Amino acid sequence: MQEKDYFEHLFNNEMWEIIVSETNRYYEQKKASDPDHNKTEWHPVTKGEVQTFVGILILMGIVRLPRFQMYWVSDKLIHQESIANIMPRTRFFQI
């Protein structure tokens, strides 16, 4: 078995759907308890978006920078195009 096979065994379709459902439920709970919780427009996350988010977290574990915001800065020395191009910083922090 390859590494990808182990990952897909742990993160099967059912697990992704649970993560999506719980992420969206968490947002609704936060919004209900604190209407000013998220001032930017929210739209429910999708399975693909959650998979992208997890992939970014894995990549951030490989390419380590001192602060999350640094992955999206315009400075060519530290900018991580592979992350910045697949998810905007604002959405990453929303999720």
Structural overview:
The chain is mainly α and about 100 residues long. The chain has one domain. It is about 60% helix and about 0% strand. The chain is built from five helices and no strands. The chain has helices at about 5-10, 15-35, 45-60, 80-85, 90-95. About 5% of the residues are buried. The model has no long low-confidence stretch (mean pLDDT about 90).
Helix content: 55-70%
Strand content: under 5%
- Low-confidence spans: none
Oligomer status:
single chain
Summarize the main sheet.
none
Number of folding domains? 1
Structural class: mainly alpha
Helix-strand blueprint:
Layout: H1 3-10, H2 13-33, H3 47-62, H4 81-84, H5 89-94
Brief summary of the model shown:
The chain has helices spanning 3-10, 13-33, 47-62, 81-84, 89-94. With 95 residues, the protein is mainly α.
Task: Record keyword descriptors for this entry.
95 residues; mainly alpha; 5 helices; 58% helix; 0% strand; flat
